[in-house]
Amino acid sequence: MEIVRYTELKNTKRHDLRDVIPLAKPYTLLIEPSSSCNFRCRMCFQSAAQEKFKDKRQTMDMGLFRRVIAQAKAWEGERFKVLKLCIYGEPFTNPHFTEMLAEAHTADIADRIETTSNASLLTEDICRGLVRGGLDYLRVSIYSAIPEKHLSITDSNVPMQRVHDNLLMLQRVKREMGSERPFIACKMLNTFDEAENQIFRDAYADVADEIYIDEPHSWVEIEGEQFIDRLYGDDIGKVQRQMTGRAACPMPFTTLAVRSDGAVSPCCNDWYGGTNLSNVLDESLADIWNGWKLYDFQVMQLEKRNRENISCRGCSVYKSAHYTRDDIDDVPVAQLRRPIGEEMHG
User: Fold this and answer.
1) pLDDT greater than 90 at residue 115
2) Cα–Cα distance list, 43 to 46, 219, 228 (Å)
3) Which CATH number fits domain 6-117+215-344: 3.40.1260.10, 2.40.50.140, 3.20.20.70, 3.30.70.1350?
């Protein structure tokens, strides 16, 4: 079967969310192998001090991962459209990543499996594990194609050439193993300088299956942390031009994200944890999705009260025309399915 380009996935078999709310199951399930990262990019929350985090940075253990997969497997209904083995950290900082991938693939719970990485930690063994384990898409975040700028932005000692060479290695391993997967999509945030954007395209043309320019967004901003401003400075106005006037975020209607400690949120932008609903150690994924906490959170969105939540108040992703395709501002609360058991509603 022909591989769809990564940037075309959102246009494939697409439904208008307004017509299908409420979903019996989320389209997207994210599981976080690690909340740690070996980069400290200036525009990312990973550059924030540890005390700004509600939870410590950590990797997910195999026991917890298997619990999540078992809950997902037991959840009746259609498969998830996508399983993303990543959220806020660098997934390959977890030494069990390829084992997790293989078990997730065997469980057959999603139409496709993908992850996002900076590709700096790829090894021959990991590359073979990605192919053997059935990873469909590897999205690679590039921070600059100018070597000195790359080091400055990532606050790391990892040379840009290593990232390129690691991807070259993965392409070689794919050929040796007779596989077109994982499809490698390299992206870089728009510099608003076409010459610099072209340097990126040229630099990764020989190692990527697709290259694209991503539009910037800011992570949830807590206690004065203005992450994206650190990268764009005086150009921040160019970032804000893509913002719409939308009031309701569609993500809680399509997504469940399981953090490395088992916490569950309907959001993949909330590194802070203000949208956490429960934990897979206490409730199943299905019960969380069909429960009162998520229902109340969805009602808050539709009633345009999202400023009541500390993380939603500091978020702008739902306003981005680039990242958010669905406009659900006119969806009535009555369209939602109320959970069973009014006596459980606190």
Assistant:
1) yes
2) 9, 8, 5
3) 3.20.20.70
